[in-house]
């Protein structure tokens, strides 16, 4: 438990004071911010769109069982096979069983945070199955031996010079290769893999209950090829990704595009209702959908936090968060970073080990303000903190200091009894370490507001 927390503090401090890292992340987020302003202009009433999205997802999350049954029935009618996975171990076991039965040795994979959640790449590698990321950003971090840095832009922490140097070291490309050259190089390298692969793995942005469809939205076409060219398509999707109807896409796709990348709509949008049907010429022969639970029911148990499952993974809260912009994605040591990660990870991976993430916030409310589905993220961070304390995960020193402060602040006479000097000494003793060595503790003024007020009124 303490190892994870200590690592978080160490990694956070290292990144927060790495000016080069901060410049790269802030530059990339500034480009995003400029694009999003334009993307939102497509909505005549943005607040109404957000309200509608919130209402739809709220209804789904609170009736999840009903919509899952409806989805599963419609998906299986067209020949799709559903694998209900309780946790990451069961998910990877079932995926490996499908791949081994097909005798596949090469898997192409499009961008998917859910497969990152279950450490699928590592499981495939361990079983000597080549798994190739086909999204450019994901491919870059795979080549670098890293995890995605951001929900939407996995290589946000790298500059074009960093990527050029990486490819020079790994593939002997020119050390000053342009982004266009690198993109062309990767495209050429991957095209043959799509044709050779026996299995394609994707995630899914939405699951449509009334037609039993998996929806994938992307900008590079790699998702489209990953699911249409190989003989077998495996989609791995969290159970919370349900929306009720096909008609809801005209709301959610533009919202996801606007808040995710600043586009009016992403370039490739696929609606997949199962494997290739009789008379059809394109698509996989078999399609498997892994519906992943993996402790999502733990979030559902918490009435005040369950709406966090409404998240459409646009990444807007990460880009708005002053903490994320300083410490980056890897410091969180979890699949989902930033504010949404700080809300859901303690429930997905254990409050005892990850309760500290809910304290990694300024509570400025920017995350809530930018969320396209109006998840009150900063309020949920407070609920998580309360749950952590009530579960007994507060440190003894924290309990002691809070009890002392409660006793001290509960009565005016106690506060007035101590001089400014004594108060400042007490603050240093209690909070100097927590406040950090790089910041100066605030000092009590020589006179309290009450004393100044009484003097002003001539009552002193």
Verbal overview:
With 460 residues, the protein is α/β, with parallel strands linked by helices. Among the domains are: 252 residues, NagB/RpiA/CoA transferase-like (Rossmann fold, 3-Layer(aba) Sandwich), CATH 3.40.50.10420; 47 residues, no CATH class. The protein is built from 23 helices and ten strands. Strands 1-10-7-4-2-3 form a six-stranded parallel sheet, with helices on both faces. It has a four-stranded mixed sheet with strand order 8-5-6-9. Helix 2 runs antiparallel to helix 12 and helix 16 packs parallel to helix 19.
Attribute tags:
460 residues; alpha/beta; Rossmann fold; 6-stranded parallel beta sheet; 4-stranded mixed beta sheet; 10 strands; globular
**CATH classification class of the domain at 43-294:** Alpha Beta
Count every beta strand, where a strand is a DSSP E run of 2 or more residues. Answer: 10
With helices defined by DSSP (H or I, 4 residues minimum), what is the helix count?
23
Report the average pLDDT across residues.
Answer: 93
Strands side by side in the biggest sheet: 1-10-7-4-2-3
Structural class: alpha/beta
Low-pLDDT ranges: none
**Whole-angstrom Rg:** 25 Å
Largest sheet: 6 strands, parallel
Q: State the separation between the terminal residues, measured CA to CA.
A: 53 Å
Q: Supply the CATH architecture of the domain at 43-294.
A: 3-Layer(aba) Sandwich
- Beta-strand percentage? 5-15%
What is the CATH superfamily classification of the domain at 43-294? NagB/RpiA/CoA transferase-like
Q: How does the overall form come out from the CA principal axes? A: globular
Proportion of residues in helical segments: 40-55%
CATH topology of the domain at 43-294: Rossmann fold
């Amino acid at each position: 438990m303490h190892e994870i927390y200590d690592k978080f503090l160490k990694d956070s401090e290292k990144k927060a004071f790495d000016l080069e890292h901060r410049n790269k992340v802030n530059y990339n987020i500034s480009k995003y911010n400029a694009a999003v302003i334009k993307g939102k202009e497509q909505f005549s009433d943005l607040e109404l769109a957000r309200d509608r999205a919130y209402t739809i997802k709220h209804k789904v999350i609170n009736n999840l069982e009903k919509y899952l049954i409806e989805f599963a029935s419609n998906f299986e009618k067209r020949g799709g096979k559903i694998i209900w996975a309780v946790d990451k171990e069961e998910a990877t076991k079932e995926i490996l069983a499908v791949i081994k039965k097909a005798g596949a040795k090469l898997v192409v994979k499009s961008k998917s945070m859910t497969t990152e959640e279950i450490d699928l790449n590592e499981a495939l590698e361990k079983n000597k199955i080549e798994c190739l990321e086909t999204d450019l950003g994901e491919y870059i971090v795979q080549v670098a031996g890293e995890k995605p840095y951001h929900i939407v832009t996995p290589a946000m922490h790298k500059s074009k010079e960093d990527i050029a140097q990486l490819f020079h070291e790994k593939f002997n490309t020119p050390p000053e290769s342009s982004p266009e050259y690198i993109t062309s190089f990767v495209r050429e390298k991957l095209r043959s893999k799509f044709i050779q692969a026996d299995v394609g793995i994707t995630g899914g942005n939405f699951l449509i209950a009334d037609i039993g469809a998996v929806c994938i939205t992307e900008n590079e076409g790699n998702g489209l090829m990953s699911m249409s060219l190989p003989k077998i398509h495996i989609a791995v999707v969290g159970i919370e990704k349900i929306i009720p109807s096909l008609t809801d896409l005209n709301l959610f796709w533009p919202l996801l595009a606007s808040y995710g990348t600043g586009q009016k709509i992403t370039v490739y949008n696929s609606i997949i209702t199962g494997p290739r049907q009789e008379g059809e010429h394109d698509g996989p022969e078999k399609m498997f959908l892994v519906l992943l639970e993996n402790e999502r029911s733990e979030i559902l148990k918490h009435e005040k936090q369950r709406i966090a499952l409404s998240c459409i993974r646009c990444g807007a809260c990460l880009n708005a968060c002053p903490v994320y912009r300083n410490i980056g994605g890897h410091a969180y040591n979890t699949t989902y970073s930033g504010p949404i990660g700080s809300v859901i990870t303690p429930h997905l991976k254990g409050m005892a080990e990850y309760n500290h993430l809910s304290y990694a916030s300024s509570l400025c409310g920017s995350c809530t303000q930018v969320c396209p589905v109006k998840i009150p993220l900063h309020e949920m961070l407070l609920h998580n903190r309360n749950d952590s304390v009530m579960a007994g995960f507060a440190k003894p020193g924290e309990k002691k200091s809070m009890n002392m402060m409660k006793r001290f602040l509960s009565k005016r006479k106690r506060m007035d009894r101590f001089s400014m000097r004594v108060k400042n000494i007490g603050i240093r003793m209690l909070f100097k370490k927590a406040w950090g060595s790089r910041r100066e503790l605030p000092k009590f003024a020589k006179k309290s507001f009450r004393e100044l007020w009484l003097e002003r009124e001539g009552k002193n």
